[in-house]
Amino acid sequence: MWLEDRRKEPMALAGGPDSFLHHPYCQDQAEQTPPHRPGGLAGPCFPAPPDRLAGHQEDDVDLEALVNDMDASLESLCAASETAPLLHNGQHSRGPAPGARVLQPQAAPRQRVQRSQPVRILAVRRLQEEDPHLRTSSLPAIPNPFPELCGPGSPPALTPGSLPPGPAAAKQDVRVFSEDGTSKVVEVLADMTARDLCQLLAYRSHCVDDNSWALVEHHPHLGLERCLEDHELVVQVESTMASESKFLFRKNYAKYEFFKNPMNFFPERMVAWCQQSNGSHTQLLQNFLNSSSCPEIQGFLHVKELGRKSWKKLYVCLRRSGLYCSTKGASKEPRHLQLLADLEDSSIFFLIAGRKQYGAPTDYGFCIKPNRVRSEAKELRLLCAEDEQSRTCWVTACRLLKYGMLLYQNYRIPQQRKAMLSSFSTPVRSVSENSLVAMDFSGQTGRVIENPAEAQSAALEEGHAWRKRSTRMNILGSQSPLHPSALSTVIHRTQHWFHGRISREESHRIIKQQGLVDGLFLLRDSQSNPKAFVLTLCHHQKIKNFQILPCEDDGQTFFSLDDGNTKFSDLIQLVDFYQLNKGVLPCRLKHHCIRVAL
């Protein structure tokens, strides 16, 4: 019966001879046999039957020696396993369970590793990561070529969800208004500048971004407004605004015009230097941008006393350290100068309705507003100049002395980008276009017109002949694009430079808001003549109006600015002509006033 059990259980080797135990085939079979039948092993966990133990006491000694050899080999691989006790399944414990009391290790006999217990040998790298105490010299840091095999429960590579979430960028909703009263809410990041927001609004409004768009800080309860500098942070500026204040999106062609024509902005009578200057345009700007120079703007201004309604005319001097007034005439001695305002923590605004709201003596008022002031008008430093040129000089000098090179960088960066893209955007004329010549086909054979004057007169004659043919077609009832009642009288209403039925005062206000630069214009309906139009143009910081009258020639209606000497079939042709030629105007048409709906 016992021999029959030996044949059935290869693991029961207690009755075999010693030579059979050390046979390699027997060892291989014992390693491959699953350890789920511990019936042939003798130990404290697996008590053997008494009949088998009684007849084979001498064989138990050999089996115990084999188990001890296996135990010694395992201990040589994990020499530090004494600090990490083994569980019943043969794995190392990861740590105490939550809420369990940690017991101090006691001097106890080492637990014997049983033959039937599978032992999971962890990789060296993972063993060192789990317990820093196991980083001993007996476990060398050998690179693991298969890291995905060590942790089946966790992926070998980092996934986006496994990384700790980083700090989210602060966002804020800002409402921006346009000139026609429409508005749009834009999500603004904390580091978004005024230039970035203008580019975004121009793109969403399908407008051309020509670096002349500006974000305007408007305070209707204080009657103040200013254009934000391109480098200013929108969120930071909004934090200093009251609830009644708002942002406006409009054109400002005069934002950096003083870099192009500095002599128009700084009259010689108002500029003084602490050192000798040659008076050139470049030297004038360098003195403002150089922090070591000491430029001064001087002149008389009307100054409103703080907390009072009265205004005084004082001699004022603007320096890098601030705005000063003289207590004794036009003296600039230090003992006669008194500080009016500091530019460091303040902003420069234009007065919208200074006469009506503050009783200003002129219409050319400006204000130095501390950033901490939200809606209190008592702490505002209000000033008035005698004319527009003087006010523009004071405001521009305040901007240059406060920001310095930042303004020049804001001006140069778009210019550099435009220069880099000019080679890609400039259309290239083809060979066929360059080889075009004027031809005369009036005779039996055509000839090339080599004289430029003759070529121009031929083109004019051909244009007049085309107009006469179109007029005859209109009489016969055929449709023509030059029909006076169909196209020429309404085509201009689709253009941005035409502003419809607005008053003279409204047109002047729009010109002033979008910058008093040479060539800024708009067209509107005439209030005195229903069939005429008015061209409003800015030149040398002054606004002039020119009436466009209709005239008839051969039954065709034309428009003219010079009493019929130069005629145009519609207003679009008139504007195109005066954008290329000055004609009877003081300057060419350069920039048109535009209003966009957000």
TrEMBL record:
Q: Which UniProt keywords apply?
A: Cytoplasm, Phosphoprotein, SH2 domain
Location of region: Disordered: 1-55, 88-115, 132-169
Recorded hits in Pfam families, A to Z, give:
BPS (PF08947), PH (PF00169), RA_2 (PF21989), SH2 (PF00017)
Ranges for the PH domain?
Answer: 294-403
Q: Which residues form the Ras-associating domain?
A: 170-254
Compositional bias ranges of the Pro residues kind: 153-167
Q: Which family does it belong to?
A: Belongs to the GRB7/10/14 family.
Protein known as: Growth factor receptor bound protein 10
Protein's organism? Moschus moschiferus (Siberian musk deer)
Lineage here is: Eukaryota, Metazoa, Chordata, Craniata, Vertebrata
Gene name, Swiss-Prot/TrEMBL = GRB10
